[in-house]
Amino acid sequence: MACTELTMDSPYVLELIKGGFSRVREDILQCKNCILHETVTNKVISKGSESPSVVFIGEAPGKNEDETGVPFCGRAGKNLDEMIEYMGLSDHDYAVINTIKCRPPENRNPHVTEINACKVFLLAQISLLDPKVIILLGNTAEKAFCRGRKLDWGEAERTDEGNMTLLKIFHPAALIYKRSRIDEQKSLIDKNRHLWE
Ligand code: SF4
Asked: Staple 76 to which of 53, 61, 86, 172, CB 3.0 to 4.6 Å?
């Protein structure tokens, strides 16, 4: 599969990995690599286990997340919590991170330059968390991993390195305004339960 760009071997990514979660956190807090640092209130780094079997990757912080520094704490977060419960995961089974760590103004989609600027942190987080399964919540997370190539919704694929499985499902925010997607999302989850059970 020509998907995933999980190359953890750039010097800065390796340095971050060596420094562990605290170094990643410190560098994110100091980061001015893209214009989003000018308008951010709180950078949003992660929540959940530090040794999960499943990592969810969202898009970018929204208003609530920017105010609190906690990922997925608004309405979309409620949907994600329900999804996690439906998946049967307990607290130590999963972690949640975002593709980029600062809120884009007016919740616009992140620009490619911003995704690329933030990618070192994403790679370091994935390497440190070392999950069995990476769940891409929608297209932005996919864009960060797949360099324009599309995964099919709900079709699990191995990463190039072969040590992790990638799965793309709907972003929880997409379920807020399109409730019919909830059943569709449950089907995607049911089809892939064997990945984490
Ligand atoms: S979005 Fe990422 S790259 Fe941009 S300033 Fe925030 S932490 Fe740095």
From this structure: 172
